[in-house]
């Protein structure tokens, strides 16, 4: 049976995959999602979270090889997990996610983009350990094409994002590069510019890239279509 493990992006939790999981299961796949450390229901203190801890949490959740799916910032932790234990991962699927470059942090890559449309919606904590999304701006930035109920559901669950994992340069080698990869671009993305998503995958084979005409949150905007593309990746 095809097995998927779904990893959320900044300020989110396993809850964001609520509509994708049943779509995958109804197609006969095994599908799970986890909270990364300090996210969702995970009690890890924000100040204790590292990129390494993210990767270890992912690998601890894998008993047999999975298709590992990462949304947005989760491109970094799924890649770090693949570097540590490529034998646990059948393939990586980046969903409008950062595709890391060895030696750079996610912060470095965000700054290297053509523009930073999310910047004015980020509110840094007083202690500098984390940031949150401005609740007045998240619909426009993240959920502009999502149903009203889904936006309310998400806004009630968004939490703080530890900064250290995103400020940590990633080390990648042939171990990571040996894992097959696919990318799903989101063409109405107001968080990671679609042209930057194209830049990050410019040298990828065309048959490893798919697209959805939606926002940065395809799991709420087009969950069935997203599930179909994930199943295609499994094929």
TrEMBL record:
Domain AB hydrolase-1: 4-228
UniProt entry keywords in alphabetical sequence: Hydrolase
Claim: Cytoplasm is one of the keywords in the record: no
InterPro entries in UniProt: AB_hydrolase_1, AB_hydrolase_fold, MES/HNL
GO molecular function ontology, one term from the record: hydrolase activity
Highest taxon above the source species: Bacteria
Pfam families membership: Abhydrolase_6 (PF12697)
Protein name listed in UniProt: Alpha/beta fold hydrolase
The species this protein was found in: Rhodovulum visakhapatnamense
Lineage, broadest ranks: Bacteria, Pseudomonadati, Pseudomonadota, Alphaproteobacteria, Rhodobacterales
